């Protein structure tokens, strides 16, 4: 068994993907789910021998509930320290990107008028992203988030075009983290139920956030881009540019936000990129909608046979008094095999 596992590890890469933790105050239900999560990850070889060695962890946004320092301190104690301990990974192998809950809306009162409402044109996007002084205004609500990530994982520029490069058994791996939440909570609509935020189709990433980063990772073997929102949440003119850039330059795109897991594979005119949605690692103990059960996944790439596997896990409040189990609702047997992007296939 051990020799087989060693062979599996040598020619493969495996990561753990979580998203949407939404740290608030002390929450007994969260503790129940967290303890079971750590147990599930600890026993991952029972899911598959392929999962013995986790190479890195990706967290695709919404660490906090409202972007405060106290919530990030809580997330370190409640989630990230236990995750690193059970996987045996150093902090440098944890890669975190921001989501809409990672901004502190109380900072909005200090922002210039020009960024208090959704952008309507590409010129506005360029005006506020192309110059560091203006860009820093957009990052002001992420101050606590950026301090937390920089201090904890050592990521540079964690709120904007964050790059982490790893070497894993001879493979150069590039992780690019994008901030899709820069313009969140700007589009507020008044109805009979009061004021509601609708971010869908009012968000931007901006070509500037991607362009320079691509030059820095051009020689890496495996390229993964991570952002919180699905691409179809971007305003149309931004999605058109961003989608083409990402799908043609990355092998994998990981995101969160939708609170349900999903995978899209296959060649398109724009590129051969696998898109994986992470689900929510903690929404609530018993979901109000069965589609949005708490979930996470492992991804395993086999460079010898040119195949990848996603192992889907979901929370069950009924199994053994509460446990993480194979997510057979997302796919049969809780796993999905897919062909690696063409550029990663054995030569």
UniProtKB/TrEMBL annotation:
It comes from the Bacteria. GO terms for molecular function: hydrolase activity; metal ion binding. Transmembrane segments: none annotated. InterPro entries: Calcineurin-like_PHP (IPR004843), CNP_phosphodiesterase-III (IPR050884), Metallo-depent_PP-like (IPR029052). Residues 16-261 form the Calcineurin-like phosphoesterase domain. Keywords: Hydrolase, Iron, Metal-binding. Pfam families: Metallophos. PANTHER family: CYCLIC NUCLEOTIDE PHOSPHODIESTERASE CBUA0032-RELATED, PHOSPHOHYDROLASE. Belongs to the cyclic nucleotide phosphodiesterase class-III family. This is Metallophosphoesterase.
